Amino acid sequence: MAMVGREKCVVYGGNRTLGVRQCWDKAEPLCSWSCLSMPTSSCLFQELQNLASKHPNLVIVPLEVTEPASIKAAAASVGERLKDSGLNLLINNAGIGNNSSLDNVTQEDLAQMYATNTIGPLLLSQAFLPLLKKAAQGSPGSGLSCSKAAIINISSYAGSIQDVHVWEYGQVISYRCSKAALNMLTKCQSLGYREHGILCAAFHPGWVITDMGGTIEDKTRVTVDVSVRGMLKVMSSLSEKDTGTFLDWEGKVLPW
């Protein structure tokens, strides 16, 4: 089922998130109401506040993904705005990375990566679950889709265990482990939330040209615009058969 222009969507992004502004630019025609959530310390926060002042269907909500109280407050704020309509789509888009190797990775590196890349999406999904359930209950039909209720976790091919992607460019141990854990979380969510009518999937956005993606030149790299457009197109076509899958921005199924 395609997204048809009535959906309510929340996108969480951190300080250097993957095209959070571009994501809203592309999603805006598809959603009747959107919320972008990020730390107030983000360099984009004020820019997005200014953007929201010109678009009544866009709301900016402060959120620190490593602070449970902040997550609960953000979910409550969104719930107050949505009232009885529920939330159709939650995109967990925060992510941090570093260049840790097997020789130098530390406990602190791992804890920091897991806090943002794995635990954050788990807590966000828990906090917004009542709103997602409400949307699913209010949607006709028995199938699953992003127009009904869905959790999309932005993961990375670097988290694949079967195919350890671009190892030759960097070990990034803590990042890989945190994304592998996010992939497992997504699979578990798909099993646990199916009965509530909620679709769950993990997305690899591509090796995107961003600050976090580094400056390595490779023909497989994609721009933020291409990545965001591709993922939104794929999301709009997801159905029950796709819940619990790991996909790239073009819709290709990736190995866990």
UniProtKB/TrEMBL annotation:
Molecular function GO labels: oxidoreductase activity
UniProt cross-references to SUPFAM superfamilies, sorted A to Z: NAD(P)-binding Rossmann-fold domains
Source organism, top-level taxon: Eukaryota
Cellular component, GO annotation: cytoplasm
One Pfam family, short name: adh_short
Gene3D superfamilies linked: NAD(P)-binding Rossmann-like Domain
Record-stated family: Belongs to the short-chain dehydrogenases/reductases (SDR) family.
Name of this protein: C-factor
UniProt source species: Anas platyrhynchos platyrhynchos
